Amino acid sequence: MSPEAPTPISELDERALANTTTRLRLTLGPLDHVTGDLAGLVGEHALQLLGMFYPRNVARKANVVVTELVTNVFENIYDPKSSFDLELDAGPTGLVIAVRNQVTPEQYAKVKARVDLIRDTPDLRAMVASTIRERRKERLKGGLGLMRLAQENKFDIGIAYQDGAMTVTATYTAVQS
Amino acid sequence: MKVITFGEIVDGGASVFHSVATLDARSLKHRFEGVIRVDNPYRFLKGHIDELGVKLQELNLQEIIIDFTDLRFCNSNGFYVIMDVVEALYLGSGDAKVIVRRIDDDDWQRETLPILLNVDDEAIGRRTSFENVRES
C-alpha cells in the first residue's frame, strides 16, 4: 500500500491544522545543573511549537502550564541530583501536560491538599481572588500557580505519587465547534 | 505626548518588560509591554510605582487608558506589581474613567486581569470599561 498524497497547502486551514498530533517529551537532570530560567525557555518553546498548528489561545495555555509546573519543580527540589520529566500531548481533543519529579511524602501531601482544595471548591474564582489579595499583603511567593491553571486556563488538575515521584497532570478539553 | 514615568525589567542583560505612562492633554495612557518572568519584579519596578503615585497627584485627569495588549506573559509573581500599578492609577486619578484594553482570547487577560483590577469593587467597576482587541 502506497502512502497518501500530502495535503495541498491551500487546504491546510485552521481546522485541518488543529487535527495535528503533537507529542513532546523532555527529561532533564541533574536539577542542580540548571542555573537559568528553564521554565521560561520551555514555556516559550511550547508556545512557538503549538502556535504552528493550534489556535493561539491553546498555545498560550501550554505556555502558562509548562511555566508554572516547571517553576514548581525548581522551587521545591528534594534531591538536587535527580531529574524531572515533562510530557506534553496536544491534538484535536485538547491538551495534556504532565510533570514528574522526586519529592518527599510531606511535599506530596502539601501539593495534594492544594489540588483537592481546587477540585472541591464551589467558587474557584472567589478563592483565587481572596488568595491573591491575602498573599499580596505579605508579598508571598508561590501558592497561585495551580489555582491559576484551573481557574484562568480551565485545566483539570490531577496528582499521583509513586516510587517517590509526584506527577501533576493538567488536562484541557477543547470545546468542539 | 509626554512620558510621565517609565519602569522596566531587565533579565539576562536585556530589557524584557516596560511599564510606561504617557500624558496627552487630560488623558493618561499606561502601557504594559513584554513579559514578566523574573522571580521578583517588584525589585525592578518599586521606584516607578512610587513615582506614578506622586506624579498623578499633580494631574487633573479625565480619562485613563490602561493597555495590556502588548503584555505577552505574566507569571504569578507579576500579579502583585500589576496590582500595584493599577491601584496607583485608580487612587491617583479621582473619578477619571478607566478604559482597559486587553486581548480578546487571552485567558489571563479575560479571567485573572479583572481580579487584579478589583472590578468587583463597586466604585472601581463603575469607572471601568473594557475594550477587547483581536490579535492580528
List the helices and strands and how they pair.
The complex is a heterodimer of chains A (177) and B (136).
Chain A: H1 14-17, E1 22-28, H2 38-51, H3 56-75, E2 84-91, E3 94-102, H4 105-120, H5 124-138, H6 145-151, E4 156-162, E5 165-173
Antiparallel strand pairs in A: 1-2, 2-3, 3-5, 4-5
Helix pairs in contact in A: 2-3
Chain B: E1 2-11, E2 14-24, E3 27-36, H1 41-57, E4 63-74, H2 79-91, E5 97-103, H3 107-117, H4 122-127, E6 128-133
Give a description of the structure.
By secondary structure, chain A is α+β, with helices and mostly antiparallel strands. Chain A has helices at residues 14-17, 38-51, 56-75, 105-120, 124-138, 145-151, and strands at 22-28, 84-91, 94-102, 156-162, 165-173. In chain A, strands 1-2-3-5-4 form a 5-stranded antiparallel β-sheet, with helices on one face. In chain A, helix 2 packs antiparallel against helix 3 (56-75). In chain B, helix 1 (41-57) packs parallel to helix 2. Chain B has 4 helices and 6 strands; from the N terminus they run E-E-E-H-E-H-E-H-H-E. Chain B is an alpha/beta fold. Helices cover 35% and strands 41% of the residues of chain B. In chain B, a hairpin with a 2-residue loop joins strand 1 (2-11) and strand 2 (14-24). In chain B, strands 1-2-3-4-5-6 form a 6-stranded mixed β-sheet. The A-B interface holds A 36-37, 39-40, 43, 55-57, 60-61, 63-64, 67-68, 71, 125, 128-129, 132, 136, 139, 141-142, 144-145, 148, 151-154 and B 11-12, 35, 37, 39, 42, 73, 75-77, 79-80, 83, 105-108, 111-112, 115-116, 120, 135.
